[in-house]
Recover the amino acids of this structure.
């Protein structure tokens, strides 16, 4: 018991991933097309927008715009995928399909369910990121061998947001409440130095941006991709780890209240 | 198999289960009979280690649910009141995925799933979506799913509520077969015929407490007469009739739409009513039942 | 039969449901334009304007039609959002009304016919689009992205473009048993259209063949029409062509929907 919570068992939790795999085996177009969205963004920037923007400054390097945006898209896609899995999809399972009521009559506990669903979001995020990174490499957008670490970085982003999304969903009472998710996600997607550098913001706004969780992920992915690696990145990673752990504790308590009262 | 002492469940300030004691023996079919809201489902969920007890001690398969939930559930089959089937999976996948939650090997799960589909008479629907099944089929699938871990104890919360008579009999027949195989069954129901059909022993619950305990026969013998006469008068007058026969039959109850007279001989009681000059709209002589037990113990009918 | 027309009663049912959620919907109708115009028009626009101005010969003036990136991108985002709102309103709610809450079934148990149910739902979607487009225009004007009084016409253009997606999507949604197809359409059709139909950069920058494909998409015509309104070049023959294309799509979609609705609901 930690903080009054039963610890999850990875051995049991993996069967939650197994269930999702069975479902996606039948709905494979969903799984297969999931990787396309960031690729379309990358393509649109490479073919069009990039010519309008020119070169962008990052950590003393002058980067082509597509080089600047590609790793940010990788991080943003990891966030978006994890949030989709743990908000809309999870709400459906929790409130509409009541998927877990049957599950909790088996040896699985609420903590196992939480770990399993977060694990699924992370696994899916990592697989998509690896595919995306492969495309980036083929387009010559992975100049440094550190770039390989973008996959674990994306998995970390997926973890932090999956746990947070799950905690948030446990408070949702209706589909309308889920609109709040978009209201938090869209600005994060647009303003986390994803599409233009931090220098576009006036002083205090730049500080705000640097405090957002996606900014940590974008900075991690971009730095690793380009190879401008320093110890300060550990802080960005630690931010995401702590965020994920805190959200998991909240999630554990909430699910226990919702499902095992 | 299961024993409880002072078992209590509170939700906020309301007490769903108010300190009940019972013990269930290996291999028997044990029933919880009571109306909606009596605390049956809360009790079931506590036994199934899906909901913690607020107070009291509970032992299931010799273990403490608050500490050994996963271990207990590993040997338990649960058929909840609402079918909690996985709507995103097919009939067969429901069994396969559920079996994996028990950490059984894929081979074992597949083998049992096929046998259980047969048991539930769903082999032909293996590839169907759960959405497309009738209520009776879903119920049978839920029962089959509860058996995937070959549990020694199966908990069924209102197994036949909402089913048509034919589907109910099929479920009862399957449950009877399980009992023959030595599986311990715990059944809740608000149908007295179901309790009479299935249960070796049962407790009668009302407002979170146990008001009676025994085999169906014992309960009827102890709390009700051998026969019952039901009388419906056209225009009111039920109270007056009750006053007239009181003392001349064992007991009399006035219900919303009828008067019940209890005694050893229904026909004699009927003759008495006619002899008093009443012209009932209709009358019924029948044997005492659990319905009457419930009425006697709580002053209310089971299904309102 | 006297009283309100039947399809108006169907619309009324959707309106009634909307009364519970309108606050959030109005808030997001204004919030998202602010976010997008700030991020793309101002943030990214700063980079674009600086880059184009620094090029020899100042190609930016011609590349974006002689306007700043904010002014260029605003009509694109207006129409792109209309498409996305129309699509999401035409998929899950239709599935819900057919299968989950069985709202259509309840309506059809009254004097309403399938045509009324469909018309009512489409009118509801059109009013959502009107709200979203109106809010967007107000925000765009506040950002200084509106250059002509003709911009008010961009509101019906937003509705029209949205409906050009809504009617075929509704027709498609009525044939579906699961929601899998919705996400696939979203990812394979809606997202690429959003990105490649001239909203964020002129399609002249695309390779020849892709340019041709882009010109065939409905979103391209919606973007071109909305941009003409906001810049004040509405009265041209090509505007007529764009509008005709979109109207034809609305009509074809509505015809298809009336067939799929009947097939699904009358069974």
């Amino acid at each position: 018991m930690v903080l009054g919570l039963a610890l999850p068992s990875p051995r049991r939790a993996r069967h939650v991933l197994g269930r999702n795999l069975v479902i996606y085996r039948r709905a494979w177009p969903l799984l297969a097309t999931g990787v396309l969205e960031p690729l379309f963004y990358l393509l649109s920037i490479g073919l069009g927008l990039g010519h309008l923007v020119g070169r962008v400054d990052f950590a003393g390097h002058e980067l082509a715009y597509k080089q600047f945006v590609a790793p940010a898209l990788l991080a943003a896609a990891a966030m978006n995928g994890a949030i989709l899995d743990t908000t809309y999809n999870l709400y459906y399972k929790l409130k509409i399909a009541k998927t877990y009521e049957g599950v909790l009559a088996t040896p699985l506990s609420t903590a196992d369910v939480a770990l399993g669903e977060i694990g699924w979001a992370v696994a899916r995020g990592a697989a998509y990121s690896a595919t995306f990174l492969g495309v980036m490499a083929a387009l010559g957008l992975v100049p440094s061998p550190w770039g390989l670490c973008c996959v674990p970085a994306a998995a970390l982003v997926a973890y932090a947001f999956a746990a947070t999304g799950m905690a948030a969903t446990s408070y949702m009472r209706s589909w309308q409440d889920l609109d709040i998710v978009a209201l938090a996600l869209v600005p994060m997607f647009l303003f986390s130095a994803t599409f233009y550098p931090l220098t576009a913001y006036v002083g205090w706004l730049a500080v705000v941006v640097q405090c957002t969780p996606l900014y940590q992920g974008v900075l991690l992915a971009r730095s690793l991709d380009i190879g401008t690696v320093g110890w300060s990145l550990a802080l960005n990673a630690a931010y995401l780890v702590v965020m994920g752990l805190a959200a998991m504790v909240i999630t554990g308590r909430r699910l226990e209240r919702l499902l095992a009262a | 198999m299961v024993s409880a002492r002072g078992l209590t469940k509170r939700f906020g300030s309301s007490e769903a289960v108010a300190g009940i004691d019972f013990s269930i023996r290996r291999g028997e079919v044990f029933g919880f009979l009571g109306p909606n809201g009596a605390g049956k489902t809360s009790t079931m969920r506590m036994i199934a280690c899906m909901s913690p007890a607020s107070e009291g001690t509970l032992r299931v398969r010799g273990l403490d649910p608050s500490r050994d939930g996963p271990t207990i559930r590993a040997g338990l089959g649960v058929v909840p009141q609402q079918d909690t089937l996985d709507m995103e999976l097919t009939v067969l996948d429901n069994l396969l995925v559920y079996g994996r939650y028990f950490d059984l090997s894929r081979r074992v799960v597949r083998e049992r799933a096929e046998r259980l589909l047969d048991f539930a008479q769903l082999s032909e629907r293996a590839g169907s979506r759960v959405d497309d099944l009738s209520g009776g089929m879903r119920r049978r699938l839920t029962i089959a799913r509860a058996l995937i871990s070959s549990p020694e104890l199966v908990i069924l919360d209102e197994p036949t509520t909402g089913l048509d008579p034919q589907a109910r009999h099929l479920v009862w027949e399957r449950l009877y077969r399980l009992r023959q195989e030595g599986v311990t069954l715990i059944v809740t129901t608000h149908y007295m015929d179901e309790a009479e059909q299935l249960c070796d022993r049962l407790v009668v619950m009302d407002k979170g407490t146990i008001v009676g305990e025994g085999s169906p026969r014992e309960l009827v013998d102890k709390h009700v007469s051998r026969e019952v006469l039901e009388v419906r008068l056209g225009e009111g007058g039920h109270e007056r009739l009750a006053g007239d026969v009181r003392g001349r039959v064992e007991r009399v109850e006035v219900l919303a739409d009828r008067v019940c007279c209890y005694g050893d001989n229904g026909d004699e009681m009927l003759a008495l009513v006619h002899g008093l000059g009443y012209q009932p709209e209709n009358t019924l002589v029948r044997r005492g039942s659990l319905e009457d037990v419930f009425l006697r113990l709580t002053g209310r009918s089971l299904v309102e | 039969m006297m009283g309100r027309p039947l399809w108006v009663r169907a619309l009324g049912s959707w309106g009634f449901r909307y009364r519970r959620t309108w606050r959030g919907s109005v808030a997001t109708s204004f919030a998202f334009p602010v976010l997008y115009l700030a991020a793309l028009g101002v943030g990214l626009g700063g980079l674009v304007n600086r880059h184009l101005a620094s090029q020899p010969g100042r190609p930016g003036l011609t590349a974006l039609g002689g306007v700043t990136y904010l002014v260029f991108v605003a009509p694109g985002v207006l129409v792109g959002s209309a498409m996305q709102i129309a699509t999401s309103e035409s998929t899950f709610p239709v599935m819900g009304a057919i299968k989950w809450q069985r709202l259509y079934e309840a309506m059809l148990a009254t004097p309403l016919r399938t045509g009324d149910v469909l018309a009512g739902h489409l009118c509801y979607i059109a009013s959502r689009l009107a709200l979203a487009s109106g809010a967007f225009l107000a925000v765009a004007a506040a950002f200084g992205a509106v250059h002509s009084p003709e911009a008010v016409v961009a509101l019906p253009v937003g509705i029209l473009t949205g409906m050009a997606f809504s009617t075929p999507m509704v027709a498609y949604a009525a044939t579906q048993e699961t929601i899998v197809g919705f996400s696939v359409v979203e990812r394979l059709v809606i997202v690429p259209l959003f990105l490649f139909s001239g909203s964020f950069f002129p399609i002249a920058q695309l390779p020849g063949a892709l340019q041709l494909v882009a010109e065939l998409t409905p979103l391209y015509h919606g973007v071109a029409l909305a941009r003409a309104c906001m810049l004040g070049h509405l009265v041209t023959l090509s505007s007529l062509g764009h509008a005709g294309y979109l109207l034809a799509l609305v009509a074809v979609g509505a015809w298809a929907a009336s067939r799929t609705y009947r097939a699904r609901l009358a069974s």
Remarks:
- Residues 161 and 222 of chain C are 5 Å apart (CA to CA).
- Chain C has a mean pLDDT of 89.
- The interface with chain A takes residues 20-21, 24-25, 28, 31-32, 35-36, 38-40, 43-44, 46-48, 51-52, 54, 60, 63-64, 69, 100, 178, 180, 183-184, 187-188, 191-192, 195-196, 200-203, 205-207, 210 of chain C (CB under 8 Å).
